[in-house]
Amino acid sequence: MILRVIPHVGGILRGEAATDSGARARTSGEELTLADDQAVVAAALTKLKSQDAGFDLAATTRGVVRAREVVDLARQAGDASAAREVMSDGLWRVFVLLLAERTAHGVRRHGTSVVDGAEVVAVSRDQLAEQLRIRLSCQGERCEVAGVVLRGQYGQQRWDEDWIIRRSADATTPANGGVLSGRCPQCGAALRIEADGSCAYCRALVLADGRDWVVWSIEEAPW
Predict the structure, then answer these.
(1) What is the pTM assigned to this prediction?
(2) Is residue 60 scored above 50 in pLDDT?
(3) Under DSSP, is residue 129 helix (H, G, I), strand (E, B) or coil?
(4) DSSP for residue 28
(5) Which of 12, 51, 59, 158 is the most buried (most CB within 10 A)?
(6) Which among 15, 219, 78 is positioned nearest to 136, based on CA atoms?
(7) How far is CA 133 from CA 73, 117, 163, 218, in A?
(8) Which residue stretches of 78-173 are H helix?
(9) Which residues pair with 45 in a beta bridge?
């Protein structure tokens, strides 16, 4: 009802997703994109490991959870720059615009949450890139507020989020853990990203050339 009363803000919130599948979830009332068959996922992860001996699924999942914490802090503060270190160029540009629109209309995201489960639900690869869709089980509080609650609600809730990470098809896991662990995959320094996506220390384009996993898309189960 409130989204009808404030249609422009409602449009901003419904348009938050950066992928077609996320947009469908919001416009049609569907749940998150269906998970692939787990046997297929397991086979794909085994193949990924055979091509990248340093790949560690548990460490990669921890990195995604860390990335979520970084993005959540940026949302809460209304400052997109904090999320620059984990997002692809395209997603970050969308994120900047989204937070600017929210700020302009007095919309703030309230609530804190934790991740209590994670599962790879899809793996894809082509000649150019490979990506993982990691479904996080979350619990806590989430709501969007602009004087009144626009969506979500106060109080404890449970929901799922899909975090899609992507890298070049020929990339391998850096020894230092890389972007999702807060390290430059090239020089190993603590990650500090310039506006063009390069490392502030070695100047390598760590977010733009696919040399390591970055957050490509974020989808939340409909509110």
Answers:
(1) 0.85
(2) yes
(3) strand
(4) H
(5) 12
(6) 219
(7) 22, 14, 6, 9
(8) 89-104
(9) none
